[in-house]
Every structure is written in structure tokens, then in C-alpha cells.
What does this fold into?
Amino acid sequence: MVLMGLSEAVFRRKSSYVFKNRFTVLLFIGVLSMVFAEVYSGASPLWFVNLWSLFVTFPLYWSHFLFFFTIAIKTKRYSPWALYLWGCLFGLYESWITKVIWNSFYGQPPLFGRYLGFAVGEMFLVTFFWHPIMSFIVPLLVFEIFSLSSERLENFEGQVLSSHMALLKCSKRNLVVAIFLTVFGASISTINFNFNLVIVTVTILGSLLIILALHRLSSTVAKDLFSIRSLVLERFGFVIVTIYLAVLYVFSYISILPENIPSLVTQLITLMIYVFVGLLLYILCPSNNREKHYSGACQENMKDMFSTKDIWLFYVLFLFLALIFCFVPSLCVVIATCCLFTALGSGIILIFTATLKSLANMKKYMCKASS
It folds into this structure.
């Protein structure tokens, strides 16, 4: 009886230890999604001391990320293009919750007018570019880079999904994309922070301190669970997140800018976009079929990957540019405008390319089935 009691006590302590450490890792990915999406866009100044940001915006990003990433892993669709499509589904919250792709950003006219009840420019910008890239893919890649600490390189497959190597490699293309996102984020956030030097500095540095603290905790106290696999929710956690999202969508649909709710036709078209993206995901090849193919080559080329040092350098560059832009608002607006149109065009190209890749995969599958 005494031994049984001791065993139960040890089990409870161990379970509590695992829960606390895994919660730290899960919290880390939520913060990364929040920072790259909201700080880099300037949408949430001083978010870490703002009640709305802490209790509405942050849980929104955190829950969306965990929800879609869990489904991505469970359905074995987590290749770069699959992640992009999951990110598009993520970004469609800007319809039901914020009404942005139905009307435009709060207090602003649509970039290119409205068609069929949609602010088309905003839809390609936020749904097909910003959220797939900055809310979903970039936080995940940064997490993977952080998790690959030097003392745990032997556990490559547990830390990184091998099919992501093309995005993790420090190639010229990836460097150009990283620099573009840094410049775009610095310029647009400075504008949305109203060129306020104090708000820019405190928001960016405060976010950096939070990331540093969670990175430290994840790589020391929770190092045994500092893995991309820990981001996959188990059944109970997934149910909780799903219920939370359902409540959030219903509450936001009714209470946030209800005057911007469009016609029933526009809402039905929005649902059709979900179905369309879902079909593209369905006909993509399951990612686990490619993991073994990538794994060996990836471990041989790990020296060419982005490092933790690179992440910190890019964040410092982001802060440095934002501070400079506070003193040259005219230049900042010009750069932000150029970046905005580039991002909008990229959104069109990305969803078009993702569609073609999915259709090509379906054609390839049909040819194999007929032969």
C-alpha cells in the first residue's frame, strides 16, 4: 500500500512536470504567432499590457495556430504548400470575426473597392499572404530553428519536419524573403504605431524580452519537450481549443462591427472559399510520404540552415528600421506602400500557384490510377 501510494505521488508529480513544461512550449508558439502577426503589422501596440490583446487577440492567434497545426499533422499534410493552405484557412477569420475582408480595415475604405461583398485587395493581402506567412509559417519555422539547439542536433527528426528544409535553408531566396518581411513589418508597424518612438520601442523590445524568456525556459527547463511534435494537441486539448474557437466566432460575428456583416450571398461565397481551400488540401500528397526522402539530405545540409543567431539579427534589424522610420515618416510611407503592393501581388501568385500544384498532384494521381 505504501509503495502504491508512493508510485501514485510520483506519477502525479511527473504528470504535473510534463504539463507545465509542455504548456511553456505551447505558450511559446502562441507568442511567436502573436508577435509576427500583430507586432510586425502594428495592429497591437503594447499588446502585453493591453487587456483586449491579452484576453482576445493573443488567444485568437494561439488557438488558431494549435488548431490548424494539429489537423495538419493528423492529416499528414504539412509540406510547405500545405502549410500555406492551412494558413489561408487561418486567415479567413478576418471575415467572420473582424469583417476585414468583407469591408476593409476599421475606418478605412477598401483598397480596390468591393466586389460581391468582398474587399478584394484586403482579402488577397491578409487571407492569402499575411496570415499564411506571418501568423502560421514564419512562427513555425522560427520555432523549429529555436528547437534545434546545438546539444540536440542528433534528434533532427524529432525537432524539425524534414520537408520544411527548403524554407529553413539560408538560401538567397529565403534571405530575400526574410529581409522583405522585416522591412515590410518595420515600415507598416511604425505607421500603425503613429510614428510614436516610445510605443515602437517598448512594444518591440517588450515582445523581444518575452520571446527571450520563453526561449530560455523552453531550451532549459522544458528542453525534453522543446520539439515541434509537442505542438500537436491531444484529444482533450483539441476539444477545448475547438470549443473556444466556436464560441469566439459566434461571439465576434454578433458583437464585433455587426453593421459590417454582408449579405447572405457573400457569406455563402466565404464558406465556398473554405471548401475550395479544403479540397486543395485534400488532393495534396500526404507529407509523411516525403519525410524519409528529405531526412537524410537535410541532416547533411544542416550547416546551411538559419540559426538562432540569424533570428535575433533579423529582429534587431526590425527594431533598428522601425526606429529610423519614426524620424523619416515620408520615406516610411513610400516603402510601406511599395511593400504592401508587393505583398498583395504575392498573395495572388501564392494562392494561384498552390491551386496549380494541388491540381497537378490530382492529375498525377489519376494517371497512376488509370495505368
The chain has a mean pLDDT of 88.
